[in-house]
């Protein structure tokens, strides 16, 4: 199964990806996690991406399309994949089409901007795995520690409120057009399109996704 998770920053894409990977036995491809790994490793790509990400802007289509192309070609993607944070511009969606990469389901998680700003201040992440928590809504078993490894959780560099607002503006301008794009594709029978309310509890959103994809 090939799935795209679409939604604003903080809508819960990474959170829902955690259960979907397991349930459907497919890898999560998070371009944000890949870029953060490059930053941590200090690669030239990481150095370039860091400035852009810290400013809440998008990394160039050329770089991102190259990264995803390479990742999708790996063996574990043969059975399908879950795209989280890609595509997020029309050229990225077109590049998928031009490369003959079709998708089965597009799942849009809908959350209003003000709710997102509130959420982001409580987000904590495990840098090694990309696992996502929230101090109130999705707390780890031990405060400040990852459930699986016990390692420290951190606050993402781009979760400061002014940067979150910038990312939301970029989302509305550059990523929102993909809603029409994939709804039109659904009308043409190319993929299924599902929108769901992302303000419900994490487990309820998961249950709805499982129903929609059943
Ligand atoms: P990326 O890492 O993709 O960030 P994003 O899209 O902005 O999304 P987030 O990871 O912030 O949110 P999410 O939807 O995964 O929410 P989460 O599950 O964590 O990208 C970062 C940057 O990299 C971009 O700004 C850009 O610079 C660059 N980049 C990445 N991909 C790119 C691309 N394709 N092209 C160009 N540039 C790219 O949840 C958020 C919080 O809410 C958590 O604390 C969580 O616990 C909590 N939460 C989740 N669900 C619920 C719920 N139902 N109720 C209450 N709380 C909840
Ligand atoms: Zn994420």
- Name of the CATH first level: Alpha Beta
Tally of helical runs: 9
**SSE succession:** EHEHHHEHEHEEHHEH
Low-confidence stretches: none
Shape: globular
Query: C-alpha Rg, in Å?
Result: 16 Å
Could you describe the 3D structure shown?
The protein is α/β, with parallel strands linked by helices and 214 residues long. The protein has one domain (2-208): Rossmann fold. Helices cover 47% and strands 14% of the residues. The protein has 9 helices and 7 strands, in the order βαβαααβαβαββααβα. It has a 5-stranded parallel sheet with strand order 2-3-1-4-7, sandwiched between helices. A two-stranded antiparallel sheet has the order 5-6. The longest helix is centred in the last third of the chain and has 15 residues, at 161-175. The chain starts with a strand and ends with a helix. The mean pLDDT is 96. Residues 7, 9-15, 31-32, 35, 52-53, 56-59, 64, 85-86, 88, 92, 119, 122-123, 132-134, 137-138, 158, 167, 198, 200-202, 205 line the site of BIS(adenosine)-5'-pentaphosphate.
């Amino acid at each position: 199964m090939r799935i795209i998770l679409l939604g604003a920053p903080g809508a819960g894409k990474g959170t829902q990806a955690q259960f979907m990977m397991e349930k459907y036995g497919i890898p999560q491809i998070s371009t944000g996690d890949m870029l953060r790994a490059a930053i941590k490793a200090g690669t030239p790509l990481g150095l370039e991406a860091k400035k852009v990400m810290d400013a809440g802007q998008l990394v160039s289509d050329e770089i991102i399309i190259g990264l995803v192309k390479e990742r999708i070609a790996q063996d574990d993607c043969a059975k399908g994949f879950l795209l989280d944070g890609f595509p997020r511009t029309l050229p990225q969606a077109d590049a998928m089409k031009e490369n003959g990469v079709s998708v089965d389901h597009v799942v849009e998680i809908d959350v209003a901007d003000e709710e997102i700003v509130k959420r982001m201040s409580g987000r904590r992440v495990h840098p090694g795995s990309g696992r996502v928590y929230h101090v109130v809504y999705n707390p780890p078993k031990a405060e400040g520690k990852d459930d699986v490894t016990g390692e420290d959780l951190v606050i993402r560099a781009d979760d400061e409120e002014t940067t979150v607002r910038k990312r939301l503006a970029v989302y509305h301008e550059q990523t929102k057009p993909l809603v029409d794009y994939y709804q039109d594709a659904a009308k043409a029978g190319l993929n299924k399109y599902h929108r769901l309310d992302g303000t419900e509890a994490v487990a309820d959103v998961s249950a709805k996704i499982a129903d929609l994809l059943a």
